[in-house]
Amino acid sequence: MTDTVPSTVYKKRNDISQVNVEVLGKLYKGDLMGTLKPEGVKSVDVDKGKQLVIIELNQNYKPVLITLSDLQKKYTNVKSNRVILMVDDQIVQQSPAEVFVDISNIMQIDVSPVKSIGDIDELYMINLWVRNEKNIKELNRIILR
Q1: In 32-42, which positions are buried (b, 16+ CB within 10 angstroms) versus exposed (e)?
Q2: Tens-of-pLDDT digits for all 145 residues of the chain?
Q3: CA–CA separation, 79 vs 122, rounded Å?
Q4: First CA to last CA across the chain, in angstroms?
């Protein structure tokens, strides 16, 4: 194979490993980890036997957890069920009703209609941007242009 020929890899959704996370004694989908405030995390442990990440929070950090379904209803005007949800440009591979995020650490929600997918009407992409140094810098760079 040469550098001019692209390689194509087909991945099954089930092959993508999804980690479960324990926070405050409750189980959540792994997508939650990326939305927690790093300064609010006291420790992270991995239980390989249970395939579980255990996150202990600092006593003064109280995340405001909301499902992606509820977030869509509360913070957007998108009524369609045909939605591709993303967190920091990473597609969420779980049901929006099962995935929680810390809404207090989301700085921006981008909603984009997708109009170029054949016969599919009312398809949207909703991308949540977590409040972190990289995203703040990028947002400021875009605003300054």
Answers
A1: bbebbbeebee
A2: 557 888 888 866 544 447 889 999 999 988 888 899 999 999 999 998 988 999 999 999 999 999 999 999 999 999 988 999 999 988 898 899 999 999 999 999 999 998 766 666 788 999 999 998 888 888 777 655 4
A3: 9
A4: 41
pTM listed for this prediction: 0.79
Cβ of 28: how many Cβ atoms within 10 Å?
Answer: 20
Nearest to 31 by CA among 22, 20, 47, 46: 20
Q: Is 101 exposed, middle or buried (CB count within 10 Å of its CB: 0-12, 13-18, 19+)? A: buried
CA–CA dist 71, 142 (Å, integer): 25
Q: Length of the chain, please?
A: 145
